[in-house]
Input
Amino acid sequence: MRIVYHLGAHFTDEERLLKCLLKNREVLAEHGIVVPGPKRYRNLLRDTAIQLKGNTASRDTQALILDKIMEEDVADRMVLSWDSFLSLAPWALDGTLYPAAGERVRAFSQIFPEIEAEFHLAIRNPATFLPALLKKLPNKTYAEFIGKADIFQLHWSQVVQRILTRNPGVALTIWCDEDTPLIWPEVLRTVAGLPDDVVLEGEDDLLATLMSGEGLTRLQSYLESHPPGSVMQWRKIVSAFLDKFALPDRIATEVEMPGWTEATVAELTRLYEEDVYRITHMPGVDFITP
Output
């Protein structure tokens, strides 16, 4: 069996991936893939990792935990999703982004050391990620929230490097949250481990939140009458319909942070784009791009 950890990050998924996979449990089961309900494993795995203190779980412990998580007797692949695998939101920023990322991935890997694991992570422009995070922490002032961090030195590549350094040889897949509308089917199939030709219910749910009902209906009709011959063709079609029918308030993101200006946002975005390029060239990383 292979265990798949969808790590979030915060404010990149809002449980969409998990909801879609849970909606397709029967289809996934036909391919040997199980998707447990989140209540079966989130607190259990967190508490177990804390108790192990970095040590390897015994075979008896592994068997006990698997029995609590899985209803099925056997599976080829099990998908676990939680945006707090790397950290709870209050500790996502402490001088740097997700400072404990490497240790957390290792801690969860130690629960099932004899089972192959892979990890999947969406990243997001700090220009919008940081405001979303601060909004999640209403009891903190901006100064308390930022602390000693330099906002222009907050790089996702550092998070990725901590994961890779602490977990040599780990299978790690990354994508940008901003690209998700154009790569959503690929993300779903990569995480689930499904062939490209398997149809999943709810694949269009994300697009339904971004474009008008008329636009989605026209897109679905067009795809039925003009089936795309490749992933790239599908992306071009979807991109064209988003350009025409996207709801402005769902696409545009208002950035409000004390002391930030348009220049601040522009510089953070520029640095993020450089960082994404850096990550795409990091050995050991599979990057999903449009």
Observations:
- The longest helix spans residues 262-280.
- The chain has a mean pLDDT of 94.
